[in-house]
Design brief:
globular, four-stranded antiparallel sheet, 28 strands
Amino acid sequence: MADFLVIVESPAKAKTIERYLGNKYKVKASMGHVRDLPRSQMGVNAENQFEPKYITIRGKGPVLKELKTAAKKAKKVFLAADPDREGEAIAWHLAQSLDVDIHSDCRVVFNEITKDAIKESFKQPRSINMDLVDAQQARRILDRLVGYNISPLLWKKVKKGLSAGRVQSVAVRLIIDREKEIKAFVPEEYWTIEAEFLKGKNQFSGSFHSLVGGERTGLKSEQDVKTVLNEIDGNKFKVISVTKKERKRNPAPPFITSSLQQEAARKLNFRAKKTMMLAQQLYEGIELGKEGTVGLITYMRTDSTRISEVAQTEAADYIKAEFGENFLKDEQKKEKKSANAQDAHEAIRPTSTFRNPDSIKGFLSRDQFRLYKLIWDRFLASQMAQAVMDTMSVDLQNGNVLFRSTGSKIKFPGFMKVYVEGTDDQEDGPNKMLPDLKEGDEIFQKDIDPKQHFTQPPPRYTEARLVKTLEELGIGRPSTYAPTLDTIQKRGYVALDNKRFVPTELGEIVDEVMMEFFPEIIDVEFTARLEKGLDYVEDGKMQWVKLIDAFYVDFEKHLKIAEQEMEKIEIKDEPAGEDCENCGSPMVFKMGRYGKFMACSNFPDCRNTKPIVKEIGVTCPTCKEGQIIERKSKKKRLFYGCTNYPECEFISWDKPLPRTCPKCEGLLVEKKLKKGVQVQCVSCDYKEEPQS
C-alpha cells in the first residue's frame, strides 16, 4: 500500500495527479461532496444556533467506505479539493468522515494541474481554513432556510414543483424589471444628417455637428433637419479645423469566471453552463499523446486577475520570440485582485503559454479548442504592449453649418495582433483614415442623407448581460452564475427568445408573491449586503451564526405572515382554441421545460400533446398557398417552413418578411449578423441598413 493517500474530487484529476506524484502516493476521488444536509427535511436547527445536520449523501456510502479503508492504511491523508470555499468545505467534510485532524497539515491546494504546480503544492500543505468552511456553510444554510421554507408555500398556494432561492429570485426580478422598462418605454424621434465628401478622388463621410456659434444639439424633428439644410449654400465646404492625436488602447485583463462566460457567449455563442463544463475539462486535463494527460488551464472559478511571476515571464519569452521585443509590455502591471480573492487564486490562463492552440488542436474537440484558444488569446494579449491609434477629427463649414468627420488607423497593433475584446452592443464598422486634409482646404459635398430614427428601449438580458449585471451588483459568486441561469429556466420562470430572457406568466406570478411577502429576498441591495457578509465570514471578520441570525429574525416574521395571509393562486390553463383530434376534448396551453406546448385538457385519460404552430403572417413563396410557420430542429434551432409540408418543401433558417423586395419583388428575410439583423433579398443584391 502507498504511504500517502490523496483525495481529490474527480477521477480525471486523480489519474493525472497520481502520475505526477509517483509510487508513494495513492490518489482517489470522492466524486464531489460526501456529506450534505438531508433532502427530505430542513436539516437546520434554528432553535440551536442553526446547527446543521449532515448525513452521508445517498449513493456515496461505497465511496466513503473505500476512502475510510484506504485512510486507515495510509501514513498520512492529504485533502486536495479545489482551491475555493466549496473545495474547502469538501475537504472539511472528508476530514470529519475520515477522522483526519483539521488542524494538521492535511490540506493541499493548487491552481493548475501541472507537474511543477502539484509537486510544489505538496511541499506547502496547511491546515483546513475554517473561515472558508464557515463561509460556505453559511451560504448553504441560508439557501436551505430560504428554499425549504418558501418553496412548500409556493407548492401549496401556487403550483407544485416551484422553488425559491436567494440568487435565483433576484435574477428573475432583474429580468421582469427589464421587461417592464421595455413595455413602458416611449420611443422618441430624432434625426441625423450624413454626408459624403470628396477631396480630389478621395471620398469620406461626415455627420452634421452643429450650427456655427451654437452648442451641439440633437435634431428632434424633420423641421429641424429642413432648417439645417436650408442653411447649406451650394456643395462647397471649407476645412476650418484639423485635430490629430495619438491614442493608446490597453488590453483587457485575463479572464475571471464572469468575463469568461460573457466573452464565450459573445464570440463562441456558448451558454454559461456549456462554458463551465468545457473549462472543467480543460482544467482537469486532456490526453496529449506522448505527453500524457495535462491540465491546460488554471482553475476556472476565480474572481482574481492576478498572474504569477512565472506565468508572466513565460508569456514575455513567448511574445519576444514570436512578435519581437517591441510587443512586450513596457512594465509588468500588478493586476487588481478583488478583496475576497485568496492569494492562491489566479486569473484563468493557459498552464503554459508555449502550448499554443494550434499545436494541440488534434487532441481537442472542436468546442474545447475554441474555448482554449479564447483563453490563450486573451491571456497572451493581456501581457502585450498597448495598441497605438492615429486619430483625426476634421470640422467642415458651409455658411452657418458645421459637419464633423473622424477617422483612425492603427499605428502600432500591440495586443490587437492577437485579440480584441468583444462587446454586447452594436459596434461601428472599421474606422478609416481620412485623406490628408488641412485648414483652408475646399471640399465638395457629393451626397447628403437625412435619416429619421427612434430611440430604442433597453435590450432584454442575454446570458452574458445578466452575468455581467449580477457581478456588477455583487449578487452571487463565480460558482453560482451558471447554475442560477440554468435553474430559472428549468423552473419555467423565464424562457429564451432569440437568446434573450423573457419572463413567463409563472415567473411573474411567483415574483409578485415574493414581492408581497418576502421583499428582502428579491431586493438587490439586501442580497448584495448578504454576499458581503459571507465575504466577512471568509475573512474571519464575522461569525457565521451572527450573520444568519441577523437575517433570520426578519425572515421568520415574514414567513409567519405569509403562512397566514397568502391566498391560493389558481393558474388556469389557457384554451388553445381547438379540440383534441384523439378524444374531442378542448386543447389547452401548458408550460414545459422548453416553453409552451398544447396538451389535451382530458389528461391523464388522454395524453395527446403537440407543439404550438406560430404563423408569422407570410404566404409561402414556393407553393403560394401555405403559411410560413416557426419550427424547431432536433437541436432546438429555430427555422421556418410551410404548413403544406411535406407536399411543399420550402425551408429557411432566416425569418421571411411579409413585404417583398422593392427591387425585384423577391422574398425578403431577416439575416442574423454577429451584432443585430439585416434585411436582405434572397433573389437579388438588395440589402437594408443593419439594425441592432
